Amino acid sequence: MIRSELIQKIADENPHLYQRDVERIVNTIFEEIISAMARGDRVELRGFGAFSVKKRDARVGRNPRTGESVPVEEKHVPFFKTGKLLRDRLNEE
Amino acid sequence: MAEKTLTRMDLSEAVFREVGLSRNESAQLVESVLGHMSDALASGDSVKISSFGTFSVRSKSARIGRNPKTGEEVPIHPRRVLTFRPSHLMKERVAEGNKT
Question: What is the pTM of this model?
């Protein structure tokens, strides 16, 4: 399923909404999650999962081609942990 | 920068502010979005949201695990797990926003 298919499903269920409003609604949800993480916040959606930010310490990396050492700075990366309900649903017969 | 946790409520509040819908309807829409994504994933489909990321379902085969406390061997059954791969845009914004 891609973004446009998700929007279409919501639009089909809500015939009273304009398509462009459904697009704005769906986009707002994803945008809100990204901006929360960009501020260092967590987004916890019970039953679905939680988005959080993990810190990766600075380390000495290596250029795989030349074998040369290169310093890699500390950085923050997005992380998603699946919620219990969804995890269970994936494994139902 | 005290970190806080957002919930469904904050997402529906954002939808409420963005579009002229009631708080109640905004909350229902957030729920339907999560519901449709979950349904697709539960049926084994992947969910690809451009400039956000991709959720995909992977199958893990059975293996012998070990209880780390007792050392006892326990069978781990084959199962399906969900992985999320963030988009470039998300990675960039999260890295930029949390730079110290």
Answer: 0.91
Q: Which residues of B touch A86 (CB under 8 A)?
A: 38, 41-42, 82
How close, in Å, is residue A15 to chain B by CA atoms?
Answer: 13
Which two three-digit tokens encode residue A41?
A: 């916040």
Say which residue the tokens 């990766």 belong to: A56
ipTM: 0.91
Torsion angle of C-alpha atoms B84, A28, A89, A84, degrees rounded to 10: 70
Across the range A54-66, mean pLDDT stands at: 93
B48 touches B84 (CB < 8 A): no
Low-confidence ranges of chain B (pLDDT < 70): 1-2
Nearest to B8 by CA among B30, B36, B25: B30
